[in-house]
Specification:
The protein has three domains: 103 residues, Arc Repressor Mutant, subunit A (Orthogonal Bundle), CATH 1.10.10; 97 residues, no CATH class; 133 residues, no CATH class. Helix content is 55%, strand content 4%. The protein contains 19 helices and five strands. The strands form two sheets. A three-stranded antiparallel β-sheet has the order 1-3-2. α5 crosses α7 and α12 runs antiparallel to α13.
Length: 383
């Protein structure tokens, strides 16, 4: 999934396309390096097939023998005289789209390159089979497919994307389509803007089903990211965006209390916004971030274990590695990510984050949410 603040440029597909064109064509040409196969498109076609297979199998890296086996049939389709080992070595040494993380192990140099190339291959396959709607229900629930599907749907023309949206059933598929809508670069155009109310209505019946399933199974990390997805899409923003203060101050009360109740029920009352509110109040109810409130934010961060004593921030993944959790520790996605401690405090308080700490503008802040009078505070005890 995408953590807040980590979103790449608005048209990620254009960025990845330019990188592939550069690494497979312009760069070796400028260096007068002869690559096997005649064109960048042929080289990319082989990598696309490999990438899709890796996404299907949820492989991040694979052994050399397996990689050569994947490459060989697609390479023969392009040029029977080229050896798979020669192609692989050039993709590592020259294109640098592949690399060796370990001896005799290969991976794409960035996971997003793998997902982009897989999306390109998927586009060709689905163009031939017309199985677009089947895409949502079969693979979206798997986390490793999500970026590939978002990249795939973001390249559909508005008319084709609209047709796809009309094929989506109610329930979980509509939630998937809703995220794709938010991430489509042309979703604010007249051809697509009218689809939003229909998608929201279609998704209502099972809007919280996936969150409830994750919570009941104590899959805390998935539940945390699902919470962020539900909240950020409710305020009309795409995954990767920040909350503004007004987003949280006006977030629908019914939805806020529903999410909070699900977290409380699954954790015996120790997780949820109402548990965080009690702790926040005990820390002095800080709102803005300045010299007067810094110690209050530090105390709050320590109490909910969002960072360690001594000035070391917990990474997002580390937040889910404890054998026991502090009260109020979750949910945290939307508040805890990147940057310095001062940057974190600014996000919690809703301040603007300076360049070099966290890119962009910080979130509306924990304070903007926890200060709401319609959100109760609940006394908690350690698990």
């Amino acid at each position: 999934m995408f953590y807040p603040g980590e979103k790449l440029p608005h048209r990620r597909t254009e960025l990845y396309r330019e990188i592939c064109d550069l690494q497979l064509g312009a760069r070796p040409l400028a260096k007068r390096i002869h690559l096997v196969l005649d064109s960048p498109q042929e080289r990319q076609a082989v990598l696309q097939a490999v990438a899709l297979k890796m996404v299907q199998q949820n492989w991040v890296q694979i052994e050399r023998a397996e990689m050569l086996t994947l490459i060989a049939p697609h390479l023969r389709h392009q040029d029977e005289t080229v050896a798979a080992a020669d192609f692989l070595q050039q993709m590592v040494d020259v294109s640098e789209l592949l690399y060796e993380p370990d001896t005799e192990e290969y991976a794409f140099s960035h996971l997003s390159f793998r997902n982009y190339l897989a999306a390109q291959q998927l586009q060709q396959h689905l163009r031939q089979t017309s199985q677009h709607s089947h895409l949502f229900s079969t693979v979206w629930q798997e986390d490793h497919w999500q970026e590939t599907i978002l990249l795939y749907t973001s390249e559909l023309k508005p008319a084709a994307f609209k047709t796809l949206l009309h094929q989506v059933n109610t329930g979980a598929d509509a939630l998937v389509a809703l995220e794709c809508w938010h991430n489509h670069p042309r979703h604010q155009e007249a051809a697509l803007i009218g689809e939003l109310p229909l998608l929201i209505e279609a998704a209502k019946t099972t809007r919280y089903q996936r969150l409830e399933e994750y919570l009941n199974a104590q899959q805390w990390r998935k539940a945390d990211l699902e919470t962020y997805f539900l909240m950020i899409t409710t305020v009309g923003k795409p995954m990767g965006a920040f909350y503004s203060a007004s987003d949280l101050e006006t977030f629908p009360c019914e939805d806020l209390l529903k999410i909070d109740q699900l977290w409380r029920d699954a954790s015996g009352g120790n997780f949820g916004f109402s548990a965080q509110k009690q702790i926040w109040q005990e820390c002095g109810s800080p709102m803005s971030y300045d010299n007067d409130t810094r110690s209050q934010w530090e105390h709050f961060g320590n109490r909910v274990r969002w960072y360690k004593d001594g000035g070391k921030r917990e990474s997002y993944d580390d937040l889910f590695s404890f054998s026991t959790y502090e009260p109020g520790h979750l949910p945290c996605s939307g508040w805890v990510f990147g940057g310095t401690f001062e940057g974190l405090f600014l996000v919690w308080s809703g301040g603007r984050v300076r360049s070099g700490e966290i890119k962009g503008v910080g979130g509306g802040g924990v304070g903007s949410l926890l200060s709401r009078p319609d959100l109760p505070s609940v006394k908690v005890q350690r698990f």
